[in-house]
Amino acid sequence: MSEELYAVLTFQAGYNTSIVLAGVIALGIGGGVIGVFSFLRKRALISDAISHATLPGIAIAFLIGIALGGTGRNLALLMAGAATTGVLGVLCVQWIRDYTRLPEDTAIGTVLSVFFGLGIVLLSHIQTLEAAGQAGLNSFLLGSTAALTAGEAQLIGGASLLTILIALLLLKEFGAVAFDEGFAAAQGWRIARLDLAMIGLLLAIVAIGLKTVGLVLIIALVIIPPASARFWTEKLGRLVALSGLFGGLAGWTGGSLSALLPDMPAGAVIVLAAATIFAFSLMFAPRRGVIGWAVQRLKMRLRAASVRGLLAMADGYLPPDGLSYQVIRLRGYIDGDARITESGRRAAAKMRRQDRLWQTYRTRHPDAALAFNPLSGLRIEDVLSADIIAALEGPAR
Question: Could you tell me the residue ranges of all domains in the chain?
């Protein structure tokens, strides 16, 4: 089993498997990149409405394929049908939001449930047809990489790369709209058109990923990677790169496991891989992760305890509480007989000077002082220039 997994992961398991895996990776990267903009615009759930709205389009496209004398399983035709009803679903959400008193979340819930119900009805009808046994449309619900042909994988990979390229070409405009809509409008950019372009790319990636991840879980591929990447960075370029990397990694690992376990739904495996990356980011991201946040909080407590202890020592007293006493003692400022050492006196005098300067600065410049935290560990000399410090040490004007 381990040898087979290694062969799949290293693209040594045969031409078709390697092509399918490459297509899944491209889809994961595309979902991660496109999902960033919906994530930043706080419209991630619109992808849920789009994905559910594609089901009747898939069924109708299949019926059209049968009527034209084909098998109805042409992936390009099915993707076109999914995109058509997906667009219709988005337009319905926007119409309900703009021309009724219902909020957007209610519009999304209404549209996705109605379209999904219609799709289930059409699928039930398809099951009564003689060609139903050859349809394989259930793979569009939960995804199936094992059922992909090399041609379908190439189509998915190529379409994913095209959407990624378009998103990167519009990165500047999308970033401006996501972070500062007023600035983007001042630049003369059409906000409505850029929003429409974002939704169009989101619709494209949803339609592309239906056969691989399935319409039920494709939303996870455009939400989880950006959410994971957000723990690691605040810069747009890095956010897009990390989100694409995490999406590609989820596609790579999940697609490989799905290739080895064809009885397991591909979409669920890929989403679980993405969820594992999210859990790792949640726990171990250095600044926003749970552990990193706990470490920063502990450092802040120790820093505050040190300040309390040194200020008390500057007034001739021992540290007022157990934590500050232990911190001061570990630093050698108090000896075993609870007496202040010479290094402790010097440190206390320096802390008293720092505290006096910070208080003076806050009094004279209350607005500017809000930007600085005296407990950050930086000396006032590291924050303010020498002439400002000299003015603080002099008499008030």
Answer: 2-285, 291-393
Report the residue count for the chain. 397
Distance CA 211, CA 245 (A): 21
- Residues 72-107 as b/e (b if ≥16 CB within 10 A, e otherwise) read bbbbebbbebbbbbbbbbbebbbebbeeeeeebeeb
Task: Kindly state the tokens that stand for 325.
Answer: 């006493």
Q: Would you identify the CATH topology of the domain 2-285?
A: ABC transporter involved in vitamin B12 uptake, BtuC (1.10.3470)
Q: How crowded is residue 47: how many other Cβ atoms within 10 Å of its Cβ?
A: 27
Nearest to 56 by CA among 89, 26, 98: 89
At residue 294, the pLDDT reads 92
Q: Mark out the alpha helices in the chain (DSSP H runs).
A: 2-9, 15-40, 46-67, 75-99, 104-127, 139-142, 150-169, 171-179, 181-186, 191-208, 218-230, 236-260, 266-284, 290-314, 322-330, 342-364, 366-369, 380-383, 386-393
What DSSP designation does 16 have? H
Whole-angstrom Cα distance, residue 219 to residue 52? 10
Q: Could you tell me the two tokens for 124?
A: 């039930």
pLDDT of residue 280: 96
Give residue 151's pLDDT. 78
* Contact between 311 and 351 (Cβ < 8 Å): yes
DSSP class of residue 338 equals S
Residue spans of the chain under pLDDT 50? 133
Confidence (pLDDT) at 143: 67
What does the pLDDT read at residue 396? 57
- The sign of the dihedral angle between the CA atoms of 18, 23, 27, 30 is positive
CA distance 292 to 283: 8
- The number of beta carbons lying within 10 Å of the beta carbon of residue 276 is 16
pLDDT for position 275: 93
Which residue from 47, 78, 49 is spatially nearest to 64, judged by alpha carbons?
78
Closest of 227, 229, 231 to residue 288, by C-alpha: 231
Report in angstroms the alpha-carbon separations of 255 from 15, 89, 197, 209, 268: 15, 29, 29, 12, 10
